[in-house]
Amino acid sequence: MDAAVEVQIADALTERQKKELSLALSEEIERVEALISLQKKDSVLNYWNSERSIVATDPQAKELLRIIERCFLFHEQTQGLFDITVQPLWQWYWQQSQLEEENQSTGIPEDILTRIGMEHIECSEQKLSFRHSETLVTLNGIGQGLVTDALYRVLENYGIESALIDAGEYRALGEAPWEVKLRSTHEDGSQHLWGSVSLSAGRALAVSSGNGYIFSQIKARPKHIMHPKGSHSSSSEAWPRTLAVLAEDATSADAMATALCLATATQREQIITQFDSVEVLVDPSE
């Protein structure tokens, strides 16, 4: 998912065990990417997007179906801000980025926005399909969290007692705390440190920012976390700061962080109060 992966293990391992575990982790990353990556042409997700329907008759398809079911839950919990059908909007922005600025559109076409919405996905017990002919799904909003949780399960099954996984999002294994520093990245690529958290016993951390731009050459300056309503940028009420979300697993933390970057102050409070185990930290300098 375009993120470097680092796994720190406190357990004493032999060289052979290290090699075995390294191979197992690498294979798990490849397995998850083969399931959800838009960059891999033969991924299960790309198959669904292109063929428009997929029957969950094999383990990978069944796993994708379970992931989509969780996405519906995240969508409901975040008042619709977490939405995996924003891929048509991303594609439109990419097309705009290939044009000279004077030829770029000043507004998002209505037919692009009509393709976006979780209601366009049909998710039954054994099948995934689309109700709209041009709806497309991306799992980039939780991709790093999914990889992080998958690696956590590998370590757990291997019997590792203390570890910290960093696959773009973080998750700790074991009771001993691991310190994770919180940094914000500015438009010029520079960073500043604004805090740190201690992770232990299965706690996970996701860090997101609504300040980044995915296509800086577009005059509309779209944010890299895209609003399902198609807003070019966050409203004056929104909360576009760098934020960190602590949750019980990395996928949940990732989904919440993605959604909260788009939330107004009122929405933010309403979303957070649903959960006893979710904690949100905000870069105080922004």
How is this structure best described in words?
The protein has 286 residues and is of the alpha+beta class. It has a single domain (6-282), classed as ApbE-like domains (T-fold, Roll), CATH 3.10.520.10. It has helices spanning 15-36, 44-51, 59-77, 87-97, 110-113, 143-158, 250-260, 265-272, and strands spanning 6-9, 53-55, 121-123, 127-130, 163-166, 170-173, 178-185, 191-199, 204-209, 242-247, 279-282. Strands 1-5-6-9-10-11 form a 6-stranded antiparallel β-sheet. It starts with 5 loop residues before the first strand and ends with a strand.
Helix content: 25-40%
Number of helices: 8
What is the CATH level 1 assignment? Alpha Beta
- Find the structural class using helix and strand composition: alpha+beta
General shape? globular
CATH architecture: Roll
CATH superfamily: ApbE-like domains
- Overall radius of gyration: 19 Å
Helix-strand topology string? EHHEHHHEEHEEEEEEHHE
Compute the number of strand runs: 11
Oligomer: single chain
Q: What is the average of the pLDDT values?
A: 89
**Do you know the CATH topology?**
T-fold
Strand order of the largest sheet: 1-5-6-9-10-11
Low-confidence region ranges: 232-236
The profile of the biggest β sheet is: 6 strands, antiparallel
Number of structurally distinct domains: 1
